[in-house]
Each structure stands twice: as C-alpha cells, then as structure tokens.
Design a protein that fits this description.
Blueprint lengths: L1 H7 L5 H4 L5 H13 L2 H4 L7 H10 L1 E3 L2 E6 L2 E5 L1 H8 L14 H10 L18 H15 L10 H11 L6 H12 L11 H11 L2
Antiparallel strand pairs: 1-2, 2-3
Helix pairs in contact: 3-8, 6-10, 7-9, 8-9
C-alpha cells in the first residue's frame, strides 16, 4: 500500500512552472492557481510513509471528522482544518455533477488537439499537451482513482472543466469528501493525498 502513496503523490512547484517560457503550460498552471488549488497541490513535499500506513490502518469517519491514531496520538481532521491548512475555497459548487452541461461542452472543444469536441470515453491524446498534463494532475492528486491514467473519464474531465473554465468550486468540501472515502470501510476509493496528509500529521505528532 505504501508504494501507491508515492505513485499518486504530485507536488507542483508553482514558482517554477509559472516562470516557464511555454505559454500553454503557464496558462494551465495559472488556472490551477485561480481555481484555489495552489495551497493543496503546492504544499511542502514531505511524505511520512510509516505514519501514513498507520493513519489509514486506524482511520475512520466519526461525526463528520476523519479520525485516526498514529504512534498513540489521536488525530482528528475536520473539514474546517482541512480547508484552512491548504487555503481551499469553501464556497461554490459542491459536486462535479452541478457543473452546467454547456460549460462541459465548451471545454471539450477548448482542450481539443483537433478543435473538434473530444470523446469523453476516449484517451487523453485527443487533448493539447498542457491539458494532458492537467489530466494526470487531477487523476493522481485529486480524484485518486485506480485505472489507466491515459483514459478520459467523466469525472476527470469534469475536474479539468472546473479548472479550465474557472468554475467556482467548493474544493474544501469536495476534497475532504474524497479523504473521508479513503478511510471508510468498504470504500473503493484509492488511498492518496500522501503529501497533504503528511503535512497535517506533522501538526499532530511531536
């Protein structure tokens, strides 16, 4: 399980990427900044492997909190703490299904390599290069789902649409919801957020 923490962990050095000469990539990363995801994707890149394994082994959801214990220390993470730690937006749409269909349709052409609307059951090579990278970022660092990173899914493309089209999302609630699924018994949600959880654990552990 520990290996998956590293395969899904993505850290974005925004100072570096926003200073690149490639305008398409700069524009894509600026979209992540404008969406309010800079604090989440660009937080300190430290992973505490042993602590993460224990966190997930003991983790559960209780009264809306993500609760665990690591080295005998009680860890309680609320949505408010999660939002404050990564400076995440707390207003806006709470679910990807709320994104207007016309916005999704526009995004299908906007990111397309050919100019024609991309096929949402196709592969990411339909997209311009910066958006292929964005597809990898949302797949590994946000949705954290098992499966091919080359395949486009409705969920991945909805996340891309939110960034590219500047959709106002309540990222705090959305991302905290994914974290809750990660520690829920019987959930098929893959484990991830290694960098972010490590940063939170550092505030609890001596």
């Amino acid at each position: 399980m520990a290996a998956s923490f590293f395969s899904n962990a993505i850290h974005v050095d925004f100072d570096s990427v926003l200073a690149m000469d490639e305008q398409g990539l700069v524009s894509m990363f600026q979209g992540l900044v404008d969406s309010g995801l800079q604090g989440f994707l660009g937080c300190s890149a430290v992973v505490y492997e042993a602590a993460l394994v224990e966190f997930f082994a003991n983790g559960r959801v209780r009264d809306g909190l993500v609760v665990s214990s690591v080295d005998g220390v009680l860890v309680e993470i609320s949505e408010e703490l999660f939002a404050e730690s990564f400076e995440l937006p707390v207003d806006g749409l709470e679910d990807l299904s709320e994104i207007p269909k016309d916005v999704v349709f526009d995004a299908r052409s906007l990111v397309s390599q050919s100019g024609e609307p991309i096929n949402l059951s196709g592969r990411k090579n339909q997209m311009k290069m910066p958006f292929r990278l964005l597809c990898d970022i949302v797949a590994k660092a946000i949705s954290v789902k098992a499966g091919s990173f080359n395949a486009i899914t409705v969920e991945k493309f909805s996340l891309i649409t939110a960034v590219v089209c500047g959709v106002n999302m309540n990222w705090a609630k959305y991302l905290f919801g994914i974290l809750k699924k990660m520690v829920s018994v019987g959930s098929k949600q893959s484990k991830g957020f290694a960098i972010q959880i490590s940063m939170l654990l550092a505030t609890f552990l001596p």
